[in-house]
Amino acid sequence: MSRIGVFTCHCGENIGATVDCAKVAACTRNVPGVVHSVDYKYMCSDPGQTLIKEAIKEHNLTGVVVAACSPRMHEPTFRAAVAEAGLNPYLCEMANLREHCSWVHGKADATTDKAADLIRVMVEKVKHNEPLHPIKVPVTKRALVLGGGIAGIQAALDIANCGHQVVLVEKSPSIGGHMSQLSETFPTLDCSQCILTPRMVEAARHPNLTLMTYAELEKLEGFIGNFKATIRKKARQLDEKLCTGCGLCTTKCPQKKIPDEFNEGLGRRGAIYVPFPQAVPNKPVIDKANCTFYRSGKCKVCEKVCPTGAIRFDQQDELVTLDIGAIVLATGFKVMRTDKFPEYGYGKYPDVIDGLQFERLASASGPTLGAMQRPSDGKAPETVVFVACSGSRDRSKGVPYCSKICCMYTAKHAMLYKHKMHHGKAYVFYMDIRSSGKDYDEFVRRAIEEDDVTYIRGRVSRIYEEDGRLVVKGADTLMGGEPVEIKADLVVLATAVQAQDGSEELAQKLHVSYDPYHFFAESHPKLKPVETNTAGIFLAGACQAPRDIPETVAQASGAAAKVAALFSRDELTREPQVAVVNRLPAPMFSYCVGCFLCQSACPYQAIEQEEIRGRDGSLLKTLAKVNAGLCQGCGTCVATCRTKAIDIQGFSNEQIFAELMTL
Amino acid sequence: MADTHFLPQASLDTLFAALTRDGRRILAPVDRDGRTELNPVEHADEVASGCLQTVLSAKEAAFPKVERLLSYTLAPGAVALQDAEPQARPTVLFGLRPCEASGFRALDAVFNWDTRDSFFNARMTALAVIGMSCTRRDEACFCTSVGGGPGATAGSDILLTPVDGGFLAEVLTDKGRAMAALAPEAFRPDPGLEKKVVEVPVAFDPAALTVRLKDLFDNGIWAEQSLRCLGCGACAFVCPTCVCFDLVEEADAKGGRRLRTWDSCGGARFTQHASGHNPRSTQAQRWRQRIYHKFSYYPERYGMLGCVGCGKCTRACPVDMNLQEHLLAAAQA
Amino acid sequence: MTDSFEPKITAFVCNWCTYAGADLTGTSRIKYASNVRVLRLPCTGRIDFMLLAKAFSRGADGIIVSGCHPNDCHYTSGNYHARRRWMVYRDLMDFMGLDTRRITFSWVSAAEGARWAELVNEVTVAVRALGPYTDYRELALTGVE
Amino acid sequence: MDVIATSRQLLESGAVQAVIGFEAGTRGIPRPAFIRRAEGAGALVFDANCTQNLGTYLTRPEVRTLGRVAVTATPDTLRAILQLMAERQLKEEDVLALAVDATGEALELPTAQAVEEHLAMVAQVLPDRDREALERLGRMTREERWAFWQGEFARCVKCYACRNSCPMCYCGHCTMDCNRPQWVAEPSHALGNLEYHMVRAMHLAGRCVACGACGRACPVGIPVHLLTFHGEESVHRQFGQRAGASSRLDYALSTFRPDDKETFIR
Asked: Does the beta-carbon distance from B232 to D163 stay under 8 Å?
């Protein structure tokens, strides 16, 4: 038989002025199961809490109802107090007499009656409360960072510097990502590689940081603090320990004509290659698709020339499984290719290029060693047209969102061009100039005012070739839409930033949600920008949305801080408001029939399978099982369950029914 | 020796009117879109003509599907009981088939076996039966194999047998005479009418079956027969003699009521223990229980069969669990 | 009789949006009808349609179900699941002849304190006009001898 | 090959240990039959009166012990089989579907995919009288519908023939059996009956394979199948899904679309 104590708070005048607290306390005494009911001016005050603690001991209460303010306000306070008196804190509930009654109704009998009702509801609930205990989940203090761009490098370094193990996985042969392709960076125009490569080297050298380049995530199981990640290390056809990175093989490789990814196809590389001189690690890979040996069975020049005999033609992919506590997703972005634009010639004009290609043209480490030469004939372009919003903010043909970085890098490109060719003409077609950011607008003004780049507000309707030049047809909307035609030698499309290829598949592997454009979705747009819906998986950089470098780095450090916070404890403690599947003796074992409709309803993939087997190992029944580490306690599964096998602790069916039955 | 009369079809209304005047509710077979139900009537023309049987049995008149045994209200430290007394309405069951009429004996055996059930008895006291001999049968009928017959009088206070222009009325009991006395003008002297009823061949000897069952408890036929059974309660709920019930408390913090509702031993949960153990965990066991209860335990305990051969269960079964057929199989097993 | 009649309104609300919103109504001291009794649940996804049916059988004349606006669910998608369930349940209610005007589904965010007051008042007025839900109240007494 | 020959062959070859089909009943209507020896196959019949959804038997513990079974199946039964697979109550290897048409010709559908492809050819249409009944109810006022269903439910004795004949009501522990808390009033009074039929209809919305077995099973002739049909139609109308179309789970009420219509939400 329950022994419930009810403590009605006046909250000074806040409740007392409209609700007759003494009367409420008195009629509550008549509720079956209530053995003690008092009212007091301030229950949350020390004397108020003492009142409760003493009553618990004196009347050995089995449950407590504090009728005061909103549980969202003081539930922790009173549960702590109850715990101090030796009662399980989850045997304390609050009736919301203030926010839901005294503050919203006038002084009337109806208001006092409602107060009494609200208390009765909670009394009946608390009769069905079970002692609960916080859930403890062990934490593996090793982080996995997916993506070796600046976001991944930054996050990995921050975590490593907190003294935790990090594994940094990059799918290409070297870390560095897009940032390593950039020539200069806005708004300071400092050399991208000069600021990036030190970080790359630090990452490679860091004792807590393990690099896995030319590798990809194969499979992920488990949950926060307890993931099991399987990584596929693609075969470089190389014994990395023996390779000294001398580069002899790459220079001797007879294949020379393979379009070079790092140079965005503007340069050429061999079949065995290092993506770029500062690559980390500085170890080549063999591109099997293009290697003469793999295609014809002959060649092996690299093997012959390798001074340390490091080439391994028979090397196979390797699968490595790691215990991981947290994951940072930093897989970055890609840019829309020029062939997506019929009106700009479907990419068939070599001199219509995208922003990344221009970065390579402008880069001292690029195919032209930084000299301004257009791809078609190497001629220095006298006139260059930059087209912003190519594909961005374009619902009909491109993507509806703003790619965010284009305004800035277009201004940068125009400046870089002007700095290299002072007499050249640079035009920028734009819709709006979005340059909000520290020193950003000043940067754009510089392009316009100091480097006299001509900005034309309007879209480019068509580009076509005419005797060796590109005719750019557009309109100047500031001049009343008057048509503009420019004969250019080079056109640079600031094409839209898009989610990396394979983002959708990766998201599904990780059970994180993603938006219609396959950018990974943050848990809350404002308050949880680096978390995903899957506990223990965090986001950094452009895999979540278009971002520039400063934002990316900041977010990466944010994600790293989340990981560090998670790793700061050996166990993580969670509120026990989670779902449980009931268990019974044989032969039923549980009301659960194993239809697993709850599994498809669960937003957190917290429903697992449990197989019940007989002594002889035969399968007797397959049940749903809740992973308390993943469950967030929303209860969608409970409403989906026909047999009522699954229930939520703290908001159980019996509790809710008991509440209903009082009404 | 029952006194017999001629009751002209035309005089039925006179009788009905008299019974109604006497404050009795008349329940009779009524056609309702293709089904025959036992419903309240006031005039003879409402009564379904030539129907074989109602879907549900007449047991409802004495043993309702839901019946309140008591209600109560809770005050601090006090429980106030209310209406724990039966209120039975005087009722006449008209046109009941002899098989069903005889069914009340089987109910009585249980409800008055150890304690006397005041609710059942109050309703029985207020109940009178005007039976109707059978001039038709169907393949589900087997009354003659369980000691009954198409013209059997047991259970009827008055038994009518259709004849030209009316009925041969056998007034059998005091209740019957009391009803006849309410409308003497309706009854004419019996011109020596012949009681013609349908022929229902005897399919098996129940006594022999009861003996046979003693050796069949662990026989495989129950599993065999019950494979098809869906385990629903249709057979039990239409049965005139099935008497299983459940007690349900509908209560909240302020008060509640205790209800008696029909139940069925065919249901998988019927014997489920709180421990999780279920002594009748398979459909075979539950099907066997149904047979044994009626043809072995009833004879043992009450010296009568728990089946009147009305065939309602067979007609109601969605998968044709034909009782007679299965009994024959058992008898020959 | 509906003049003197005060409807009984039962509200099922999620903890994160509507309950918090109703708290804000209080902190903002906005007054509303005292007919409503609020039951707090973690999420609208938790609300089994049977709870609504039970509320009616407990004598509720009107029901409010409210949670986070689409996209704002604390649990990311509980409200979407709830919405589908309601779409079917409401349809079925109507088919069985239950009075769908007596259930109001709504989204009230933690910031919409005033909205909550409006909602409760609107529903109270509407249900007062409909009168007591006698059809449902009589059910428990029908079919019992 | 016809049902008898196919079944005989399957039993002889040991491909299945039992065939669930129909045999002549004692009251003019065919009834479910369990044939476990090739000699017995001769008893099998199949015609338009074979309406029982045999899928109901596939989840029964007694039937599971028989081994691999073949089932003579109408499209309804095939849908039930797929839905049971989607809800992990049935494995592909447990059952061999024999699609049988009114002529008695049997077509072996050994895999879920085969069943899906076969069903894709068959249009799923409600029987005219049920469609008309639904339309008639649709035309009624709400008050009339209430009166109609209350009148029907008044006859309900909660024998659960509807539930037990339903292939999708396989739950070992039905909501009706839940008494802590008592989700549904157990007695067959007006409240208990309304709650029972409401819960059943909701639990089948999005899962009902529209075989109508529940309605046919009802001894007192309550058209309970109209409730589940309506629920299923409602799901199809609003979400475009149909139960029993695939062996992969596609349950409308355990998923959602952010752009689901919400006309009635304030």
From this structure: yes
